[in-house]
Amino acid sequence: MKLIKQDILNALKTITAPGEGENMVDSGAVTNVVTFADEVIVDITIRNPSLQARKKTEVEILQTIHKLVYEKAKIKVNIKVDAPATSPKNEIKGKSIPGIQNIVAVASGKGGVGKSTVTANLAVTLAKMGFKVGILDADIYGPSIPIMFDVANERPLSVTIDGKSKMKPVENYGVKVLSIGFFTKPDQAVIWRGPMASKALNQMIFDAAWGELDFMLIDLPPGTGDIHLSIMQALPITGAVVVSTPQNVALADAKKGVAMFQQDSINVPVLGIIENMAYFTPAELPENKYYIFGKEGAKHLAEDLNVPFLGEVPLVQSIREAGDLGRPAAMQTGTPIEAAFEAITRDVVQQVVDRNDALPATEAIKITTMAGCSAVKKN
């Protein structure tokens, strides 16, 4: 079949250009269409730099042409990102922290899925790989990182840098840690409104002597809310990792977590989804796998949302015991847990590398009273 250019353009007029509010053709997003027999090349320019936006645009074009023009058409889509000239590649807007190369937010839609446990084990695995690592425990109302690193009774020291007093993070297992848990009693509930919590976080972020770090991991609170917005407003987030268990109740909230990062007004790249408590293998039957919470739920969610699946963490008693004892399970050598976290961590590192190579700057967000957040106006 010989494809006709005008037919292709008419089909593309049924698709709304990302962030434009009108169709791809009339908005000027489609810059060129070339047809030859049953082949077509579509050149398009979009403003949203996220990998998710580019993939969504490509899929929409393919599906629309196959549906409205010719189902066997051979289509090539060339997508160009029209990034603002004031935002150089990899220089992210917002207040940066000197010496910190990559900031990765670890989130979950629901509490109790093991987000903090995964954060702790990712951190020690990165340290074992030779990276300089820090954790900011932003789970203000339920800080657990100090317990997992056996530093619950420690307190950050004060050091003077360039004439200014700074907090020195507590360090163990090669990981620097700051948490609100260092400043409260173990039995003391943190009953703060959003502004007070945000102020405390800003102090731990910008009034701390983090030094040189390859990775800062931020252990976010469960859900989507004030703390998340404050963090993404203040910091140059490289990307986000979402943790979920396989059951539908957790997946529903994990989906909301991914959606938060992918909003046009936030636009933080989602590095991938990790499935925690994926299956149970009893020690006496090492070949058996029991899918207590469901099978491959997070993997299927990642496929549905078009984000990377970073791997599975089994439900193993030693992970819980290690966290309670203050020595993350990934530090154990020659175990399936070590292997699982090594594979996941390598995928996270690769996703960060790919993100920094392929995507321009993440936009800063601006908090507003009614809307929650909105995009910073582009010049």
UniProtKB/TrEMBL annotation:
> Out of the domains of life, which is the source?
Bacteria
Q: Which residues form the MIP18 family-like domain?
A: 5-52
The UniProt entry's GO biological process terms, in alphabetical order, are: iron-sulfur cluster assembly
Q: Where does ATP bind?
A: G109, K110, G111, G112, V113, G114, K115, S116
Per UniProt, the keywords (alphabetical) are: ATP-binding, Hydrolase, Iron, Iron-sulfur, Metal-binding, Nucleotide-binding
One of the record's GO molecular function terms:
ATP binding
Show the PROSITE patterns listed in the entry.
Answer: MRP
Q: Which InterPro entries match?
A: FSCA_dom_sf (IPR034904), MIP18-like (IPR002744), Mrp-like_CS (IPR000808), Mrp/NBP35_ATP-bd (IPR019591), NUBPL-like (IPR044304), P-loop_NTPase (IPR027417), YlxH/NBP35 (IPR033756)
State if Hydrolase is listed as a keyword: yes
Xref: HAMAP family: Mrp_NBP35 (MF_02040)
Q: Which family does it belong to?
A: Belongs to the Mrp/NBP35 ATP-binding proteins family.
| Function, as annotated | Binds and transfers iron-sulfur (Fe-S) clusters to target apoproteins. Can hydrolyze ATP.
Quaternary structure note: Homodimer.
Check the record and name the PANTHER family matching this protein: IRON-SULFUR PROTEIN NUBPL
Q: What is this protein called?
A: Iron-sulfur cluster carrier protein
Phylogenetic classification of the source organism: Bacteria, Pseudomonadati, Bacteroidota, Flavobacteriia, Flavobacteriales
